[in-house]
Amino acid sequence: MAYSEKVIDHYNNPRNMGSLPKDDKSVGTGIVGAPECGDVMKLQIKVENDRIVDAKFKTFGCGSAIASSSLATEWLKGRTVDEAYKIKNTDIVQELNLPPVKIHCSVLAEDAIKAALEDYKKKAAPGAAQGERAVAQAK
Amino acid sequence: MKFPIFMDNHSTTPMDPRVLEAMLPYFIEKFGNAASRNHQLGWEAEEAVENARKQIAKLINCDAKEIVFTSGATESDNLALKGVVEMYKEKGDHVITCMTEHRAVLDTCKALEKRGIKVTYLPVAKDGLVSPDDVRKAITDKTILISIMMANNEIGVIHPVAEIGKIAKEKGILFHCDATQAVGKIPVDVEALKVDLMSFTAHKIYGPKGVGALYVRKKGPRVRLVPQIDGGGHERGMRSGTLPVPLIVGFGKACELCQQEMPTESKRIAAMRDRLQVQIMENLDECYLNGHQTQRLPHNLNISFAYVEGEALLMGVKEIALSSGSACTSATLEPSYVLRALGVGSDLAHSSIRFGLGRFTTEEEVDYTAKRMVEAVKRLREMSPLYEMAKEGIDLKSVQWAVH
Fold this sequence. Notes:
- The complex is a heterodimer of chains A (139) and B (404).
- With 139 residues, chain A is of the alpha+beta class.
- Chain A has one domain (5-122): Alpha-Beta Complex (Sufe protein. Chain: A), CATH 3.90.1010.
- Helices cover 40% and strands 20% of the residues of chain A.
- Chain A has helices at 5-12, 63-76, 81-84, 89-96, 103-124; strands at residues 27-34, 39-48, 51-60.
- The longest helix of chain A is centred in the last third of the chain and has 22 residues, at 103-124.
- Chain B has 404 residues and is α/β, with parallel strands linked by helices.
- Chain B has 13 helices and 13 strands.
- In chain B, the strands form 3 sheets. Chain B has a 7-stranded mixed sheet, with helices on both faces.
- The model of chain B has no long low-confidence stretch (mean pLDDT 96).
- The interface between A and B is large, with 36 and 35 residues.
């Protein structure tokens, strides 16, 4: 399959690849997908005064999955939490020219954004117990 | 070094220039129809076809008259399975095959099931091999055909075909073998293997695309088939249609070259394959060889690289032509059914890469491929949340994933 130039660029030069300290109260972590399905995305945001000041990703998946999560971190930085909720998978599809067979990569990225935001909100909520996270937990 | 490097010789092979040279006169000068019995052009075309038939027959140790030309191995598989089932339907309605067969056999079996035929799909062991004992146990008094491939196209394992042939003979059941990946690469002798029908094709052995053959046994027993293409009664009535003379000449030449060069070529390629395996596995942890360690084709290597996804890996080494068992490279979004049948987890099936070396592979290309694979895997593991979790000591199997 031929990839769009933007997918190739994100694959070759991933933006914001890495991890943030997940126990930090200002950090929200979302892990979505499953190894059996061939893609797992970890997306993290660091929030200060309701604004996302940093975002990081790590992705196990195809080039389009890597590009979708890399792009998501770019778009998240600088947004408020509420603005971040407005990122839609269709925007990612359009920006990266994803073919129909790769749309699920963008859906996964949107899910990862939501999961990270929810995790942050849970941790930031008054009375939230430190260290209790909605990260994929060991059984 | 010339790019892209071709490490996908299971999918197809480049033509050997000597094959092309043999074919060229048969396009413009000697363009006759091999079925034209009344002029010079027809005679010379027929002679060329019969010469090729002999070259092909010699490679698999059969009589030239037992070779039926087709458009390729897929057609050969269709003709063998459908042709036998239709011809012998009075005798029974049961076919035995195995779960890791090529789609040309599996999909044909599915089509037969729609016609009311019962098909047993035998499982394979962790090493990818089908057990002759399982074949024996699956036989009923309604079994009319056993179809087991010689060597698997993904993991290269070589099935115990001679043992299965012996069982089939003992029980008086016809035995078809899809030997597409094996012919020309390892010795294949229809007498020693006791096969009754065998599919193979030219383009996997440095010949042209568009021509294949079905070996159909003439004696002990004489196998009969209902033709799937009707017409002028070519090929002993089993497959009508004007013979593609240049392709057949190329097929013959390709077989002749394989026969001459196999003893030295298979050793040389196996040594390079081993070198590739060592260079990759010595420099990376958590790589797993798929399929039996030694009972495999000399040019095949199939490795799963844990924590990285196959398609992403191919993207990282795009100057090398390779194939992956990842779902993303298939139309179905399911990872390789062959690896799944071996009990390889979906996660590792998504992470598998198939290397297929060939006649024109060089040591320089092997070393380059190994180096690039190691680099790409390391880079993607840095990017992989799974690798990070594994390094933190989290057992990925115990994590509750949101399967989507």
